[in-house]
Amino acid sequence: MSGMSGMNGITGMSGANQSDSPANLPPDVDALIDQVVRKTRLRKRERVDVARELRSHFEEAIAAGKTSAQALNAFGDPHAAARGLRISARAKRSLLDRTLGQTLQWTAGAAIVLVAMYGGFALYLNTRPHTISFDPIKLFRDSLPVPKSPDETVWPAYRDALISLGVGADDPRRESPGVLATTDDPFSAIDQSSALAQWLIANQAQIDALCAATKKPILGFPYGIACSEADGLLFGKETLASINRSVEVGVNDINEFPLLYFPMPHLKTLLPAMRIIAADMILAGAQGDGQRATRDAEAMMALSIHAQEGRFLGIDHYGMRVRALAVNRIIMLLEWKSDVFTDSQLKRLQTAMLSVPQDLERYNASTERMMFADVVQRMYTDNGHGDGWFAPKPAQLEGFFKGFVIMENTNPALTLAQWGPINAVAVAGRKETLAMHDEFMKHLELLADLSLRDAVDKPMHMQTDVQFQGMPPTNVTRYFLLQLLYPGQDILLKIYRLDHALREAAYTAIAAELYHRIHGAWPTTASDLAELCGGVSPVDPWNGNPIMIASDGDGFRMWSVGRDGVDHRGDLAIASSPPDKEVRSTVANFRDWDNDSDNPTDQDWVWFAPRGNFDRWKSKK
Questions:
Q1: Cross-strand partners of 558
Q2: Which residue, 48, 105, 143, 248, has most beta carbons within 10 Å?
Q3: CA nearest to 220, candidates 305, 313, 147
Q4: First and final CA of the chain: distance in angstroms?
């Protein structure tokens, strides 16, 4: 029964499926049948038929008197027999069956080849070098102004003055009523019995030192190097440790992005400096001290210029925030107590409005270019000829995405790592990515001369879903890094134009006050102010027309049509802002950066409306 047992193993069928009275075959014949059937690699049912045919063949040979050896010798090569039987069996299949089988066979083969290629390419990418060819921190530091002597550097003086004022991160004095009021209730400085006024008076020597320091030409913050223990008194121990850890890591760790997440703790400390000086300017006005109020305004303008040292877009943003507050305080004091200022002090304020270097009024992409090139050199391979594949490492991606807002339950770092070889093909190469980024940066810098209206409205209408001017949505994947790192164009363009427009408004308001002192009456047209505005009549930055002026029962006022372009005759009754904002009319358009251009604020931008109070500047709360 051993032969029958061997046939059951060959066919995988039970004995009931064999012939009713099968003959016993010699073991060597059973073994051959077993070998041939297996080598056919046919379907189960077809193997049963082949086994049956072979058994019948050998039974007839033995019945004819041949020995098993003779029968096996006559049978020939088992491999050739298996091939012939396979061809014969497959030929009996239907045309559809054969076509489907071939398709599946080719598909399986292609899949195996693709998997092998994918794995090989993944291994290739994993072994390619990521070369750090330049030090981005050194390049950034080399771009900073160099003092001729330590006395030209203002940072130590800023730091020491702020520490003495009690605004250090770990200093309990920062929670005192006076310090808190510089942010929460700056207008309380007009009441000299208030906590804020008393704090300002008690710390006048430190405020004087802070303002005096602004006269130095260079900020000199120690970017990219270890901060001192004195800096730690201002930033706090935790921030100091974090900065110094990043310095120790340096630029050679491929998983770090030193410029993308560059520590700039000094910017947060310049904001309280700005608020303290602005509050002191209000107190100076209440005390009738025009000299100190003028000094404070000049100090805020100088502070804003220092804040822009380094030329990151975010740094520029901080500098313009400081200037916006300086402008607001100047116009507010002119409307409230213009007699505080002498003519010469008013002219000093006008000069302060013109003190911003021309380069700071335009977008400078040099640092963003360094940052982007550094990200590319870390996330791309390097073929030694300026090109390479997009092949970020998993640990690197975790560090890269730590500063991005990520959807819940998603892990872009893990996803990119899993699809590495596909991303390498889908994402533009190193050279193409750098060239496209450079093209965008050049285009953006050329747009710096747009009018305020065009800067606010056009970019929003011209942007695509990926926020790149001129880039079709189909290129989102190809220019993956540009999509993530390219700055928001609508904000980028208009903050520079709004910054300039705000200073133009203050300059013109001062000119109107000087005109009133000279002529004993307010100007009636924009051309009246040309003699006090450098020989040029002031224009509305929103439409390019002469600034509008009126003197009627509502008093004198000077206004722009504002963002909605509709003239409301400078009606202060509808000049408003959200209740959580500090000011109402003049800066409404400056702070309204992120509003949809299809829903602009329905108010005029009132440049100057002297009423002997500052009610329109107060919070609505």
A1: 549, 608
A2: 48
A3: 147
A4: 102
